[in-house]
Amino acid sequence: MSATTAMPLHLDDTEVAPEENRRHRRRRGGAGDRPGWFVYTALSFVLLASLLPYYWSLLIGSGDSSTIRDPNMSWIPGGNFFANAAAVINDEAVNFWTALWNSIWSSTVIALSVVFFSTLAGWAFAKLRFKGGSILLIFVIATMAVPTQLGVVPLYILFADLGWTGQIGAIIVPALVTAFGVFWMTQYLRQTVPDELIEAARVDGANSFRTFMTVGLPAARPAAAMLGLFTFVTAWNNFFWPFIVLDPQNPTLPVALQLLQSNYFVDYSIVLAGVLLATIPLLILFVFTGKQLVSGIMAGAVKG
Fold first, then answer.
1. 6 vs 2, 11, 12, 13, 218, CA distance in Å?
2. Which among 112, 134, 291, 120 has a CA at the least distance from the CA of 189?
3. Which of 82, 221, 228, 244 sits a CA distance of 20 to 30 A from 183?
4. Cα–Cα distance, 243 to 14 (Å, whole number)
5. Residues near 36 by Cβ (< 8 Å), separated by ≥ 6?
6. Taking a C-beta distance cutoff of 8 angstroms, is the pair 274, 100 a contact?
7. pTM higher than 0.85 for the full model?
8. Which pLDDT tens digit goes with each residue over 256-272?
9. CA-CA distance, 112 to 182, in Å (whole number)?
10. Radius of gyration (C-alpha) of the chain in whole angstroms
11. pLDDT tens-digit profile of 241-252?
12. Are the C-beta atoms of residues 243 and 170 closer than 8 Å to each other?
């Protein structure tokens, strides 16, 4: 036997590594990164708990005035939902279509404004160096600790002097930018956009605002989408300030639905049918923007 055949054979490291990696993954958790039965069980429980209030509203809203007091109430929806919904829409005191348009218009304007101004301010705090920037950001964040109710009286006096009470602009202007939006976009842009990209834009002759429009806004798209979605939902559900500053002839949906309880006898089947009508636009919004929401959350998780 020759010397070459007597020498022991040795596997190269690149051949051993895959097998070692597979054994290492088996030791760490068996099926890799796939979630187990406990995760699916917990998520199913959370899903059912989240859907239960909507289903309960559907049960009451599809019944009659005696359904909510019936101890033997069926868990199968009744056949009165469309009649109750028509009663809400045709109620002259509710002004349903005016309230629906006011909610869509105000929530859309507020969401777009908060996204733009919060991204602009977040870009300044994250990527522009100016004296007192850190102190100013701390001040902006500190305003989140101030209860909204403390500013209601002076804010109402201000809009009364301007003659804006009863107008939809009175709920749009105070919400054009939020401290949380500024903080959220500051943190995201600080971790996402490299300084070298900004320097490259400046070398190409772009000024600060053009750099923001061409570099900052595209990079902030996932976080901006999530901020806009949650801002829209918050503005849509806002009741306290619109209830104070608007009148019954020009309400938003939450204020209009409150008028269904102004009578001596409250028919909760009609009230909850109205609540479901007000929820349908939000469900449609989440269906069409679900991917943007998930991408924004995942982008924040990866960067954070």
1. 6, 16, 18, 21, 64
2. 120
3. 244
4. 69
5. none
6. no
7. no
8. 988 887 666 788 888 89
9. 14
10. 28
11. 999 999 888 899
12. no
